[in-house]
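Hmm, what's this shape?
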Amino acid sequence: MASLRIQPSLDEQDAAIEWIASEQYSQAEKEAHRLLQKYPRHVFGLKLLAAAIAGQERWTEALEVYRRAFSACEGDWQFLNNYANALKMSGYVAESVKYYRRACVLVPAKTLDPHYNLGLAYIQLGDLKNAELTILAALNVDAMHPMGNLNLGNVYNMQGRHAAAELHYRAALHGMEDNVKLQNNLALCLRRQNRYAEAEKHYRRALEIDPHYVAALSNFSEFMALHGFMHESMMLLREALSTDPQHVESFSNLLFTLGHVDGITREQMFAEHLAFAARFEHPLLASQLPHANVPDPDRPLRVGFVSADLRNHPVVRYLPWVLEHLQRQHPELCLIAYYNYTSRDAETELYQGLFQEWNDVAHLSAEAFAHKVRLDRIDILIDLNGHSGSHRLLSFARKPAPVQVSWMGYVGTTGMKSMDYFIADPVLVPEEPRAQFTEELMMLPATTAFQPCTDAPDVAPQPALASGVFTFACLARMNKISPRAVALWSRILLAAPHARLMLATMADGEPPKPLLAWFAAEGIGAERLHFVHMHSVMRILELHREIDLVLDTVPYNGSTSSSHSLWMGVPTLTLTGDTIPGRMGTTLNLHTGLEEFIASSEEEFVCSAVQHAFDARRLAELRPTMRERFLASPLGQPEVVANALAAALRKAWAKWCAAQE
């Protein structure tokens, strides 16, 4: 009697594998079903079927088949690697790590696949240290592996180790010079090292490869804005949104950029923010769930703070001072941090001491983060980014907390119904602009407090009285300086020929070329401009020994830089704008009793500046009093702001509790 074959022949197996190798997955699936029918007890058919279904990205089905085959294949590194791939692609990233690690133990010494794939899983989980180690293990097998070098470069870029990232990106270039992701990521890495000419070259190369690659369009727009090309930045962002209308980062960057562009009214700004909400928030409103939080108005509250800026960032001059007093004076509030950035620094470690609980959440999806907030039983969730970088507005749109508040990180509405409150003060947001907020305004004595540097130099005497040269200054970043501001400053310099204007260089130490061109067009030569390299906060403070009067930017005013100037005895002359970003200078001066440095028209702005340039005695009189003025205002009283914030949060909570009855 002839024996029955119980397994496919080698020829049958090779023919089936060829369907997979040639990516003809539907044919492979048909062949798998044939083999399973013919050899029902042999695992090859299941392995082939799982691979064929996975190749068609039907991950849930693939997982079911892999699980049927698992007991017969748990010693097969290729099977384990493929099973882990399916888990990862189905969203079970943490579970996939277990099987990648098993595959790494079983894999032959010269095979890198499971090590590399494990590294990618660790990246998704935000475990950058283990990602580095496992991708390095893959590169030990093949040091020039292009994707391995690309992703190790990504790890180092996320950690802020940009020189190391560049080395691996350049190694990857040898194998895939035409890879648009590689060109974009290398450009970003170079920009973060302030190597602007090289960065621009690689951004342009990325867009040559794929003119519609959204990440490159968005990143290049940020690069252009950094150099003062705001209209070009807007065009790139609109192109990105035309390519991918659901690219939330590009839409938020556009909103942020609009605040820096002359001629944009607050009504136009508000309409654009509502458009953001219509596109990204409204589809999520129906899925918002009821909250299980106990509606007791007097119980202790769990207050979450969501930010990507708990690091060396300007917010460090505002938030910690208030948090210290909240923590000390209001034990009924449990403060919980949700840190949404991939790298840490010394400031991050200091922030950790200001919260009772700390969570790193940069690796979580919007849905997963919202789910975590619910599990953490957060009563009040405070957004500290708005439409600035690495925000979590799509999580807020899911309404994971009963009360949601936007504060500090973005000067304007989120546009979202799910954001209940916006923290402001009556000076920053007077009656008329309040209609431009979807949020209810939570008013404090000051929007926040500003913490001066404790080691700041002493206030110096008025420099013009000793030198005879009057020094105006604007030390703002380039994307705040508009052609309109340059036109105003040029009128001042033309009317005061003995004056000069101090400006900041780019981070690479070079004067911004657009700025020189704008001044030249207004009749101001480079000899009237004094460029300084601000490589540290202490350097900025020391420069005030030479500064007589700061000129504010339009349409987006200075805030942190103007506060530093005030502490160093130098007022900022500001022109009140139509939008909230254009009222920050006015707010600072009104809080500190410096109304005489607020202009309501361009003519008044120019005349006031010229008057001070020819008679600096009033400035000399004010200079030694500025720190006292600051400390007497809510801006210099964090305990006042903290107490008002605690009371306002309690009131908002009581309102929510009452609505549950």
Q: What stands out?
A: The mean pLDDT is 94. The CA atoms of residues 575 and 601 lie 7 Å apart.
